[in-house]
UniProtKB/TrEMBL annotation:
It holds the Pfam family DUF4880. InterPro entries: FecR (IPR006860), FecR_N (IPR032623), Ferrdict_sens_TM (IPR012373). Keywords: Membrane, Transmembrane, Transmembrane helix. GO terms for molecular function: sigma factor antagonist activity. Residues 19-58 form the FecR N-terminal domain. The chain crosses the membrane at residues 94-113. The lineage of its organism: Bacteria, Pseudomonadati, Pseudomonadota, Alphaproteobacteria, Sphingomonadales. This is Anti-FecI sigma factor, FecR. Residues 120-212 form the FecR protein domain. The keyword Membrane applies. The keyword Transcription regulation does not apply.
């Protein structure tokens, strides 16, 4: 069996899917050790190949959920349903389609087990920042409330960001590209440093050293160098030039700092809430649009809350559960009546 390597040009999405399906089917038919090695090389030769396998994993997980749901309502086995339906209505073509669908789910299950075996899982709690030394000499930095999976083989290095934010100092190894999966995007580096943040509707990339390439969906790869970033969405990759101030602001968490430069109070509170078990709440819409700047430690938001009261018409009220409410202060109150946190 021959597993095809990366094309000199860009493979079409359909071609990748077809090749992935062929190799997945081969995995399900008692492959030899050589077959498995060749399939592994194909998967790791191009970030889009890895994405195809990730989609297979998602399909399998969906199938498992359906299987569990069917069990909960005591549905009969699929074979019994199809057989009965065949006797009444189904044509031979529909039966074949059903069989193919079942086989694809089975193949996806095998791929999940074999492709993601040996995965290391890393996770941080709220308020925790972790620096993780990886086996290849790279370093994975995880921000608060973040999670990632790492899998290294002889042919490639892969990290999947599951939630939150991560920064990477990648050890140079041209024979083993370093791929980071972030939702629909795959970011590839050899020896470089970059930061990836999963925001609600997009992925925010900041490159601080070297160069990376970015694939998203079936778009052509885009190259992004140090001092630049990208806003990555399922159907687009928008490149942006970043000045040193903005890069420093985006990576300040590595020093356990939150850096603000004229952000609104709503934005600032949202940033601090990433590191707090009990949130900072805004109790007056007039507070939301006020702006503040400064550099504050993420481990202690008292300094930030004190700065709000000193520089802005804001009153800070502490809740019994540890939360904080920000209220608009029309007139200054006596110092003994103001509540700091």
């Amino acid at each position: 069996m021959q597993a095809s390597g990366p094309d000199s040009g860009y493979e079409s999405r359909d071609k990748i899917a077809a090749e992935a399906a062929r190799l997945l089917a081969r995995l399900n038919s008692d492959p030899s050790a050589q077959d498995e090695a060749e399939i592994c090389r194909w998967v790791e030769s191009d970030p889009r190949h890895a994405v195809a396998f990730a989609r297979a994993e998602a399909a399998w997980e969906a199938a498992e959920r359906l299987k569990s749901a069917a069990a909960e309502v005591n549905l009969p086995p699929l074979e019994a349903i199809v057989s009965e339906e065949q006797q009444r209505r189904l044509s031979r073509n529909i039966m074949i389609a059903a069989a193919v669908a079942v086989m694809l789910f089975i193949v996806a299950a095998i791929v999940t087990v074999r492709t993601f075996s040996g995965v290391d899982h890393y996770e941080t709690g709220i308020g925790q920042i972790s620096d993780i030394a990886l086996d290849d000499g790279s370093t994975l930095h995880l921000n608060s409330d973040s999670a990632a999976e790492v899998r290294f083989t002889d042919h490639g290095r892969k990290v999947r960001i599951l939630k939150g934010e991560a920064s990477f100092d990648v050890a140079h190894d041209r024979s083993r590209p370093f791929d980071v999966e972030a939702r629909s995007a795959v970011i590839r580096a050899v020896g470089t440093a970059f930061n990836v943040r999963l925001r609600p509707s997009l992925v925010e990339l900041t490159v601080t050293q070297g160069t990376v390439t970015v694939h998203s969906g079936n778009k052509l790869a885009q190259q992004i160098s140090a001092g630049s970033g990208a806003v990555i969405q399922p159907r687009s990759v928008s490149l942006t030039h970043l000045d040193s101030r903005l890069i420093g602001q985006r990576t300040a968490w590595r020093e356990q700092m939150v850096e603000l430069d004229g952000e609104t109070i709503e934005q600032a509170a949202s940033e601090f809430n990433r590191y707090r078990a009990a949130p900072i709440l805004i109790g007056d819409t007039r507070v939301s649009s006020l702006r503040i700047g400064g550099r504050f430690r993420i481990t202690d938001s008292k300094e930030f809350l004190s700065a709000l009261q000193l520089s802005l018409p804001i009153r800070v009220v502490a809740g019994q559960d540890g939360s904080v409410m920000l209220l608009y202060q029309d007139e200054p109150e006596p110092a003994e009546n103001a509540t700091g946190v």
